[in-house]
Design goal:
174 residues, alpha/beta, 6-stranded parallel sheet, 6 strands
Length: 174
């Protein structure tokens, strides 16, 4: 488990609490979050690190939460090239603020990234999927690699403008 290098270019991938509707049904095949991480690795530039961070609720020991992930889940992530599993106490807001791109299946880190000028990649149906600075992997007809390259070229001001235009659209909530 690592701490991030905020001076390097990286993608922040936020794991979801499971089971939860944000991964099944909204994530479809990407309810398997390791599959999503592997797919993201395939489409990013090789030199760009992916920092993976666990959802904070997944680590709370409580009799209602019997869905702890196995140690093998984390081992598999740590074995992947170009991917680092972060310590759970790393500040998510700071990770988002300093990242080149934020990715998750459908969750709130997407909504947190866009108004800060950070583009995003979703693997499932997200409330912000109509925003131009978000690429949805699962249903896109555009090459994911090409879409991500375009997102990474966008300035923070362009991403913020895309998000504001998205919010102005009367149909965004449908």
């Amino acid at each position: 488990i690592k701490t991030p290098d905020y001076d390097s270019q990286y993608v922040y991938f936020a794991l979801h609490f499971q089971p939860e509707s944000t991964t099944l049904p909204k994530g479809s095949i990407y309810r398997d979050q390791i599959l999503a991480i592997k797919r993201l690795r395939e489409i990013l530039p090789a030199e760009m690190m992916i920092y993976v961070k666990e959802h904070p609720r997944s680590l709370i020991a409580d009799i209602r939460n019997k869905n702890f992930r196995s140690i093998d889940f984390y081992r598999e992530i740590m074995m992947l090239e170009g991917i680092q599993l972060l310590h759970p106490e790393v500040d998510s807001a700071e990770l988002i603020e300093n990242s080149s791109l934020v990715s998750t299946i459908t969750g709130s880190p997407l909504i947190e990234a866009l108004p800060q000028g950070v583009p995003a990649v979703a693997f499932g149906n997200s409330i912000v999927e109509g925003c131009e600075s978000l690429h949805k992997i699962i249903s896109s007809t555009v090459s994911p690699r090409s879409a991500v390259e375009t997102l990474l070229r966008n300035s923070p001001a362009e991403v913020k403008a895309d998000f504001l235009n998205f919010l102005k659209c009367p149909d965004w909530h449908k």
